[in-house]
Amino acid sequence: MLMKSLPILALALAGVHGAALAAPDLPQIGDVHAPLVVAMPSIPDGGWFTSAELGAITTSGNTRGTSVTGKIDARHETSRWSHEFIASGYFKEDEYEDDEGVRQKSRSAERWATSAKASRKLMGQGRRAFILGSHVNDKFGAYTEYSTIGIGYGTRWYTSPDKTLDMEIGPGYSVGKRYSDDDEPEEERGMTVRGAAQFRWQVSPSAFFAQTVSVEKGTGNTHSVAETSLSTKINGSMQMKAGFSIRNDSVVPDDKKNTDTQTSLTMVYSF
Fold first, then answer.
1. Which among 28, 105, 172, 192 is least surrounded, fewest beta carbons within 10 Å?
2. For the domain with range 45-270, which CATH number is right: 3.30.2310.20, 2.40.160.40, 2.10.109.10, 3.40.50.970?
């Protein structure tokens, strides 16, 4: 009986020894029951971080229509420079019946926006000098086109393990196009002073809050934008994001409102 058990015992010992030798080559298995974590992205030097989000709403029945919103945010980091490129779009189309019962489609919102920013990292945490350019095309907005370029200085005013607050200020130059009360195109050009702030807060291991505000004060108009968002982790690369944005111009034609708002619920994919 003992002789028969020896080969089995030897095989068991060999298996344990072989597993111990192979262990360093095997991937480490994390806690599969641990909560999903939303963390402020840390980008290594020379690396990219990109997120793409998309949301859509369709209605049918008495009211028919479709609205789509999307955004792409790409960032690149090096030891001395930080670059950010953003493109976003929003449109809304309604479907209705005219007096003769024929279905017609009407576009009630169409806005596209792009921006690019290059920041030179300075001595000290969060300190930077930057150049920023942006362009907005809003077919139904108070300004149908609005472009700006600026330079400035930014710094991180507050930091903690779960919160950060960044501030920026600097001069710029803007070009805006709008239509007057008699539907004649008008173009505004002039120097501006821009101030911006961004607050980020990791509310919980799976939830992330962000608030951004920017104000551009020009000779004829003050252009302000505020965006609020709350993101919740779904898996390693997917998030659900609820957002609310406000755009305001101090001077607009009589047939336009000063403030536009947008509420959205989007899916975000990060890579």
1. 28
2. 2.40.160.40
Contact (CB, 8 A) for 47 and 77: yes
Place of tokens 């993101």: 231
Give 240's pLDDT tier (boundaries 50, 70, 90).
Answer: very high
| Helix residue spans in the chain (DSSP H) | 2-22
Output the pTM of the full model.
Answer: 0.78
**55: which residues sit within 8 A by CB, 6+ positions away?**
68, 69, 70, 264, 265, 266, 267
Q: Is the pLDDT of residue 41 over 70?
A: no
What is the rounded distance in angstroms from the CA atom of residue 12 to the CA atom of residue 159?
A: 54
Determine the Cα–Cα distance for residues 195 and 202; give it in Å rounded to an integer: 24
175-198: average pLDDT: 87
Q: Residue-wise over 79-99: b if at least 16 C-beta within 10 A, else e?
A: eeebebeeebebbbebeeeee
